[in-house]
């Protein structure tokens, strides 16, 4: 093996052509081909040398190459069987650092199949959001060490949004109450082949300790009720949540407020009282 086993790889565009991997719209395929951009993305989780990384939806393997070059041990799950030969070639020269699983990431039981790992993914937006919510609701501390995920820009902004903004909602609270979430990179639509309709952004999320005495399921139900009717005052939207209006009173939170004015900390305090009862 040469010092850099990846030095002789053909450009990704040639790999895509050689394996007939034209992007399929139904699979939400928009590929990143620029090695410099991919190397920058691979730096977002921090130093990956010797780290286990779970990549969801590697496609032809552009980000996978960058993650391997950054020193990660990669487990990748891809559902498009057309991509497996190209990924197999990459696995062969990776010196045992890439294993590929053919399958649907939505059905993977990560704690038993993947174990502790950083996560990186450029996924179709609907799949990405479904996985994010599941990962944020995982038992704490979760199996994932960090999440580096591509979203359409508007979703990324909802994840990191602060109260009193139009983007602030359930996703913001779920992402921020026991994690730190930030936008690490913004990408114009033209960075992808083919370009999607909207711009994208990469969110980086790391877990923190969970506030004591708060049941995650209760917080989840509370935010679903509050933001399910975001134009309504809490006294109307929280009627369906047992003891929630009493909790507001205990905390001195006006029931005439609307959910976007309630801070993450206030949601946590309401949930803590409800978790007690
Ligand atoms: N990571 C590559 C890149 O950045 O160029 C490909 C990104 S493309 C937007 C999304 C990839 O995720 C596709 O290869 C698609 O087949 C795969 N994919 C879509 N849904 C999936 C799922 N549920 N489980 C696993 N892979 C999926």
UniProtKB/TrEMBL annotation:
S-adenosyl-L-methionine binds at residues 30, 32, 57, 78, 104, 122. It holds the Pfam family RrnaAD. It is an enzyme of class 2 (transferase). The keyword Transferase applies. It is found in: Cytoplasm. It comes from the Bacteria. One of its GO terms (molecular function) is RNA binding. Residues 37-209 form the Ribosomal RNA adenine methylase transferase N-terminal domain. Its EC number is 2.1.1.182. The keyword Kinase does not apply. InterPro entries: KsgA/Erm, rRNA_Ade_diMease-like_C, rRNA_Ade_Mease_Trfase_CS, rRNA_Ade_methylase_Trfase_N, rRNA_adenine_dimethylase, SAM-dependent_MTases_sf. One of its GO terms (cellular component) is cytosol. Its main location: cytoplasm. It catalyses: adenosine(1518)/adenosine(1519) in 16S rRNA + 4 S-adenosyl-L-methionine = N(6)-dimethyladenosine(1518)/N(6)-dimethyladenosine(1519) in 16S rRNA + 4 S-adenosyl-L-homocysteine + 4 H(+). Specifically dimethylates two adjacent adenosines (A1518 and A1519) in the loop of a conserved hairpin near the 3'-end of 16S rRNA in the 30S particle. May play a critical role in biogenesis of 30S subunits. Belongs to the class I-like SAM-binding methyltransferase superfamily. rRNA adenine N(6)-methyltransferase family. RsmA subfamily. This is Ribosomal RNA small subunit methyltransferase A.
């Amino acid at each position: 093996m040469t010092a850099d086993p990846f030095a002789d790889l053909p450009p990704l565009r040639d790999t895509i052509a050689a394996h007939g991997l034209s992007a399929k719209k139904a699979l939400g395929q928009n590929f990143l081909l620029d090695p410099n951009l991919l190397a920058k993305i691979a730096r977002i989780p921090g130093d990956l040398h010797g780290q286990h990384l779970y990549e969801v939806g590697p496609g032809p393997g552009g980000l996978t190459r960058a993650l391997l070059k950054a020193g990660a041990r990669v487990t990748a799950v891809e559902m498009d069987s057309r991509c497996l030969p190209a990924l197999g070639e990459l696995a062969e020269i990776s010196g045992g650092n890439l294993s590929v699983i053919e399958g649907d990431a939505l059905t993977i039981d990560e704690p038993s199949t993947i174990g502790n790992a950083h996560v990186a993914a450029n996924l179709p937006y609907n799949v990405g959001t479904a996985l994010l919510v599941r990962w944020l609701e995982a038992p704490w501390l979760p199996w994932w060490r960090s999440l580096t995920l591509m979203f359409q820009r508007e979703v990324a902004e909802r994840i990191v949004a602060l109260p009193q903004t139009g983007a602030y909602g359930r996703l913001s609270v779920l992402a921020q109450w026991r994690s730190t979430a930030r936008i690490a990179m913004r990408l114009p639509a033209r960075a992808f082949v083919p370009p999607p309709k909207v711009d994208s952004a990469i969110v980086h999320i790391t877990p923190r300790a969970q506030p004591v005495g708060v049941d995650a399921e209760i917080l989840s139900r509370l935010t679903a009720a509050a933001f399910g009717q975001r134009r309504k005052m809490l006294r109307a939207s929280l009627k369906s949540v047992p003891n929630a209006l009493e909790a507001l009173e205990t905390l001195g939170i006006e029931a005439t407020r609307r959910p976007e004015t309630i801070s993450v900390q206030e949601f946590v305090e309401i949930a803590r009282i409800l978790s007690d009862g």
